[in-house]
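Question (not urgent): is this output format expected?
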Amino acid sequence: MEPIIVVSGLPRSGTSLMMRMLEAGGVDIVTDNIREANIDNPKGYFEYERVKTLPTDNTWVKDVSGRAVKLISLLLRYLPDDLEYRVIFMRRNLEEVLMSQNTMLRHRGKEPEEDDGGMTAAFAEHLEKTFSLIEQKPNMKVLYVDFSDVIENPVGCIEDVRTFLGRDLDEEACVRAVNPELYRNRVEE
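Got this back:
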């Protein structure tokens, strides 16, 4: 059985971009297209509704062997321990994650709550626990990919991904899948 490719990270960290790159590169992806593209993800979300059942039913995971599936970092702990995973973990500046989430809320007609750094601290704590969990799982190999690096150096990024996965990818197609104009919520260094 081939390892399952898991694209993970916080919401709004670039997981959809990585899924789009993998699909363009020739990787079979697991998606049901129920969540349609919109202003916040104009190229699509690449989600699979069944992922939401992981805490109560993870029996389906074995059926996605060799393919890529996207799931938020909170759900990594529910993956079965008897399968092998190649986790591509997307990282992004936490201020940008919050900016992007707040923009998405406004697009849905909701006003984001004021935050005094509490969400940033909660995200940082969650990531620390998640990275520790991954390190303790011998069946999970991980490649950390920074969202900004994908935008600034997609060629180098996809080469890292290709090496990590140990499989051929159409690297030119992967690079074409990156649209720097969609990097709209950014913190200037």
